[in-house]
């Protein structure tokens, strides 16, 4: 008989219940006890499913990964502790010294750093190319090119990659195509349908959606590639926290509603901004004046996404005046929150570039990127209008 009088004993006292909990439980346990070595053998050999140690996997990561798998139309994806852990595992789990990788030239800032500094340090050659120009991009392929890393819609100028042409070229040559689908989400486009072999997410952004969990996700269509990536992520400790997975699963329950609302708001805000004095240009993939409008229609259909960028007349003084005049819109370098956030690439994500390199991308001191949230659109329009007019007086 178990001695309940000793409070120091770990005992399984969870009560039986004829009814089931509606919410997912959180399981923070690091270790799992098996009944005997034969059972442990069966677990390691895959004959029985069982957890052993949380770095290797835990129920909250499994639950969340199965849900994102279903959205992306894949199986056996894994959760990682951040979006950058997912990008890193996708590359480092597969590539070896002597391989070559091509990345889009407007990847997420830390992905650019990985390509520019860390992979070359390990003997993996990299190059960056503009994925809106498929011919030039494909010309960068070398005999030792093993992988291509793309984002469908770029940050912050929202250019749309020529996915079809690049995916076809990659497939023909046996090159793995990894797609970071964070901006577009599986609701905007399914990476696998576009020809991706590996799909990556920063779940931190709109999938989780509340700026309170840092997580990533990776899935590969080839089970051997998936195994290599999973082993690398487990070995290097890129584990996701059970609590973050639990929060993200709760966020995911409203993801379709949040995405649709944020997208409708983004489209309306883009059109509103385009009609305001003091605005030099507005970038939104589905607007007819977007440089990749036709390709956006073809790849994204009517899903323009929740990101809008615009360029203000003026320089840093006008940019300062704009953010100060919009105190209820967080000036913060993130995206995908339930609320609208505003980022200024010249002072944040793209501050490391030379002014010439920024100018080549069209990122001036007046350039802003907006991650549009789910607020009332009339309030958002009014707040932006007031802030832009204040900037004009600066
Ligand atoms: C934010 C982001 C990442 C990195 O994700 P973290 O969760 O912040 O590590 C990678 N790719 C894209 C496109 C992102 O927006």
Automatic annotation (TrEMBL):
Keyword Aminoacyl-tRNA synthetase assigned: no
Keyword Transferase: yes
N6-(pyridoxal phosphate)lysine sites (modified residues): 205
Family matches, as InterPro entries: Cys/Met-Metab_PyrdxlP-dep_enz, PyrdxlP-dep_Trfase, PyrdxlP-dep_Trfase_major, PyrdxlP-dep_Trfase_small
Signal peptide limits: none
GO annotation, cellular component aspect: cytoplasm
PANTHER family: METHIONINE GAMMA-LYASE, TRANS-SULFURATION ENZYME FAMILY MEMBER
Name of the featured protein: PLP-dependent transferase
Lineage: Bacteria, Pseudomonadati, Pseudomonadota, Alphaproteobacteria, Rhodobacterales
């Amino acid at each position: 008989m178990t001695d309940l009088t000793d409070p120091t004993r770990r005992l399984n006292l969870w009560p039986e219940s004829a009814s089931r909990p509606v919410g997912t439980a959180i399981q923070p346990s690091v270790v799992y006890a098996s009944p005997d070595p034969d059972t442990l053998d069966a677990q390691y050999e895959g004959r029985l499913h069982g957890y052993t140690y949380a770095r290797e996997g835990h129920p909250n990561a499994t639950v969340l990964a199965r849900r994102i798998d279903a959205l992306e139309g894949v199986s056996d994806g894994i959760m990682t502790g951040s979006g950058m852990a997912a990008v890193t595992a996708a590359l480092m789990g597969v590539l070896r010294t002597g391989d070559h990788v091509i990345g889009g030239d407007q990847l997420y800032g830390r992905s650019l750093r990985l390509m520019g500094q860390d992979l070359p340090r390990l003997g993996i050659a990299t190059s960056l190319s503009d994925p809106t120009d498929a011919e030039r991009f494909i010309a960068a392929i070398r005999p030792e090119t093993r992988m291509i890393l793309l984002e469908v819609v770029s940050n912050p100028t929202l250019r749309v990659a020529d996915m079809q042409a690049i995916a076809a070229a990659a497939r023909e040559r046996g090159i793995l195509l990894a797609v970071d689908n964070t901006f577009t989400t599986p609701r905007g486009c399914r990476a696998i349908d576009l020809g991706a072999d590996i799909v990556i997410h920063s779940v931190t952004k709109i999938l989780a959606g509340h700026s309170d969990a840092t997580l990533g996700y990776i899935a590969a269509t080839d089970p051997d590639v998936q195994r290599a990536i999973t082993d690398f992520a487990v070995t290097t400790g890129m584990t996701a926290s059970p609590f973050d997975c639990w929060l993200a699963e709760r966020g995911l329950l409203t993801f379709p509603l949040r995405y649709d609302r944020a997208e409708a708001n983004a489209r309306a805000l883009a059109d509103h901004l385009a009609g305001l004095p003091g605005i030099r240009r507005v970038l939104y993939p589905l607007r007819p004046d977007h440089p990749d409008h036709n390709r956006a229609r073809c790849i994204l259909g009517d899903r323009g996404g929740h990101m809008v960028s615009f360029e203000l007349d003026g320089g840093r003084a006008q940019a300062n005046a704009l953010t100060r005049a919009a105190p209820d819109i967080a000036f913060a370098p993130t995206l995908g929150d339930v609320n609208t956030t505003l980022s200024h690439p010249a002072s944040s994500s793209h501050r490391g570039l030379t002014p010439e390199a920024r100018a080549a991308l069209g990122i001036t001191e007046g350039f802003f990127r907006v991650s549009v949230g789910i607020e009332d659109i009339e309030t958002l329009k009014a707040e932006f209008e007031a802030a832009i007019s204040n900037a004009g007086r600066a």
